[in-house]
């Protein structure tokens, strides 16, 4: 019972200063009961249409991503950059993403598989599961049994053929063609295209014409025939590597009959190629242009072009320029380019820094797995990541990554179903799986059912 003086004092104070806030007595309770007082909050997701990647770490809600669904609304471009050191889950993410995308009827995927063990590429197991034979490019295979892609395939426009020939030569030489060498190549190519009508023109025809130019080509420019021959000598020597050198057997004949460009998954197995040799960027250039002219079509299909060891593309100015054009062109025809790189410094500090910056700018989605602190700071600076994201990148455990989807930054745990596990964790990838398996046990039990339902469903991809 309050004393009369206190009651009188409170009444006078309320009259003069307004009503005084009610005094509440403290309540003793448990944290379990009190958690409802402070409602949880989380960043907005990317919608409920697309493929399931996993769950957002802080809120626990499902994380769904699809560049084709987001393009034009939340994404200015459908291209995707995946970064991170080995052993953190990049390979598992790529494979499950492709498997889940292929559940849609209007999806088609091409993979440039640059890694592998036991004589086969890393994607060989998935290709077998889907009944697909990888296109294995191997210079050591006998010439009569190897797979060939012809840079002079008639399905490629003559302009595209000449651009591809120039790129091959420039990559191999390490510098651009001068005007004289470019002229010699142009007239040799024009002659071969015009006079080879009974079969596909091949690189041997170009080499032969460079060594023995026609007099009429010299007369057209009022120069001596010996000068034209001298201008084309270096070009002929470079192309000879693809005809009779260490790269023979892959591009020195007509395109192999039977390559199914309508298959849902097309795997180019480059695992037999030395990743540190000049052969790899040459291969990337040839495959990229060949696909541009033979695979990408205005048929309303959504296509994914996934490139492992993508620094071979971004680190070469000439190859990067080709792919930069491919990305711009493919965006109108439903192409999502996925580049997988270990370190951003591999490309931004390389010889193609300008071209690399342009390609990185087109990648509106960036997924960053664990990196060392110095590399994380550099990555954050180049990609414009928020400070909190940069600080946690070195602390990320395998299977967890920072996702930046056009400024929507979240930390995501990748989830893998039991059906996918044997296909994803190949012998080489076991190092990526070993750390994540214990953490995934309870998540698989609780959430794999949702993913399985989606994968076994029809064209719908929504999560309740």
Automatic annotation (TrEMBL):
SUPFAM superfamilies on file: P-loop containing nucleoside triphosphate hydrolases
InterPro entries named in the record: P-loop_NTPase, T4SS_component
Pfam families for the chain: AAA_10
PANTHER family assigned: SLR6007 PROTEIN, UNCHARACTERIZED PROTEIN YJGR-RELATED
Protein name: Putative ATP or GTP-binding protein
Organism of this sequence: Streptomyces venezuelae (strain ATCC 10712 / CBS 650.69 / DSM 40230 / JCM 4526 / NBRC 13096 / PD 04745)
